[in-house]
Design brief:
heterodimer, A: mainly alpha, 0% strand, elongated, B: alpha/beta, 5-stranded parallel sheet, 3-stranded antiparallel sheet, 10 strands
Amino acid sequence: MAKTSPFLALLKRDIKLSIRRAGETLLPLFFLFAVVVLIPLGVGPGPNLLSLMAPGMIWVAALLASLLALDQLFRGDLDDGTLEQWFIGPSSGYAQLGARLISHWLISALPVIVFSPLAAIMLHLPLEALPVLILTLLIGTPALSLIGSLAAALTLTTRGAGGLLPILVFPMVVPLLIFATGAVSLAAEGTVSNPHLGLLLAFTILNLSLMPIAIRAALKMNLE
Amino acid sequence: MTLLQAERLTFQRGGEDIFEPVSLTLAAGRVIVIRGDNGAGKTTLLRVLAGVLSPSSGCVRLNAEPIFVGHLPAVKADLSGRENLHYERQLGASQTTIAMALIQVGLAGMGARPARTLSAGQKKRLGLARLLVRNAPIWLLDEPYASLDAAGCARVDALIDAHTSQGGAVVLSTHQQLPQLDAAIDYLNVASASAADG
């Protein structure tokens, strides 16, 4: 049997496990639609008000939805001993961490992105803003996953970490929320939203380059 | 041939040494048994040797692929025994097939069951089956006899003997049962650094 890289082996196992736990896996998506369906009931179905609020609501829902799966991101692996296996021998653990971050994004963020056009239509977001909404989600959700993963790694062995997670995550995602909703709102008004998208991209690249180092250090610290 | 060498290893937690400095050399075909009381630092030493923990001083040199089986069996509860071993095999397969490994650890016919339905002892055996399907000459085993019955312990001894006779080497920790092996055993007594101070 040919040797598979640890990255691919873990990615395949993670995806298999999340298909097996479909109920948990689809929770972020249910959450997004719960928000989209309930908000018009709360604030009234007027299309003007909803279309004004749509970019912010979809992004806040995506943000909160991403928090749902965070608590279990590394905890199951810590409890069954598979986390320490990431660091055996010459392995630095980065391949496994990369696989976990990508599988987390595929499972928690990608379904939200795929169904965001439906959510946007339900909230009367102008159609010309739709490509920009999808673009902001594609660019921004990886940063969201990375920030959440750092918080999950830092609180891995902390008791009652569920309450701590949002407190750690929210301040770090404020720039993300401002640039992303700013871009979508400008697009909805028919204005150019490139500067916002550029800043959003820069924020994600910054996170992509630095966060893995911090997350790995936090995980190793929690294994001591 | 030396497979693993460690020189003056120490590990600090909260600024205090966990165990007295340890040096060891593990040659092919040999077994090192780490002995010590509860809390002496056997598990910590094995985790340092495995690379899970970075030593505070000293260094570990590995000349072959290691595999570590700790207190936790490192099997996914939602996957079947066979799926768990398939994952392990992807990381570097040995000659032993999954079916053969399950038979050797006494789990024949249970490969399709989700690991969560296995008992603690059976999970432990599944964890040990990981050793057989992986092509890793260095076995690092933390309390391999814990939660196994007498037949299970004898099976572990047989697995270790088979492994060392094929040129593998084993470091294991135990605080109770001493292994009954054909292979040459070196004993390493680990003393808690704080106990030595007091």
